[in-house]
Amino acid sequence: MEVNLKIPSSLNEITLGQYQRFVQLGDMEDAQAQLKMIEIFCNVPPIVVRNMRATDIAEICNIINNLFDTKHQLLNRFTCKGVQYGFIPNLEDITFGEYVDLDTFIGDNLNLHRAVNVLYRPIEHRTGDRYTIKEYDPNTSELAKQFPLDAVLGAVVFFYNLGKELSTVILTSLDSKNQEILAEYLYSQESGAGTTASMQSLAEILQGLNISLN
To answer: How would residue 128 be classed by pLDDT, with cut points 50, 70 and 90?
Structure first.
C-alpha cells in the first residue's frame, strides 16, 4: 500500500499539543507506541499506519526519536500561525501571578502550555533585537499548544539549568549567620524539627529545585 505522509524533520514541525497527546498515553507496548507515534506526529489515521510496512514504521519512528536526542536551545522569538512570539524580555519584571503559573506548570507535561503561555507572548513592538510583548493573559494558554516543540523544550531546559544554578549559588553563598536565620525560620515552620534537620531539609529542597525559580 502506497502511503503519502509528512515526516517531521525537526522539532519545529511538531507542536506542543502533539507532544502532550503522546505523553498522555503513558506506558505502552513497543508496537502500540510506534503506531501512536506516527499517528500523532505525522498526522495520519491509525488504519493508515496499520497498513504500512513494518520496516517503514521502524525507520520513521527512529527518525522521530532522533529529533528528541538533540541539545535544546532557548529561542528568543518564533512565529506561530502568522503571529511572532517573543520570550519574556526581563524575568526580573515578572509578576507574582506569572511566577505562580510558571512555577506550578513548567514541570507538568500535560499543563506545560500554561507555563509556556507565560514565557512566550505576542510581540507588540520590535526594534532590532529589542522587543516588547503583550501583557500576560492566562486565558490564551490553549493557543500555546500550537507552539513549536523546539521552542518549548528550549525554554524548559533553560529553566531546568537556571534552577540548578540558583540552588548551587544559594547553598554555597550562605554565610553562617544567614544559615542560622534560615534554620530558625524553617524550625518555626516545622514543629519538632531541629536546626540540623531544617538545614538538611533546605539543602534537599534547593538541590532538587531544578525547574523552579525559587
So the answer is: confident
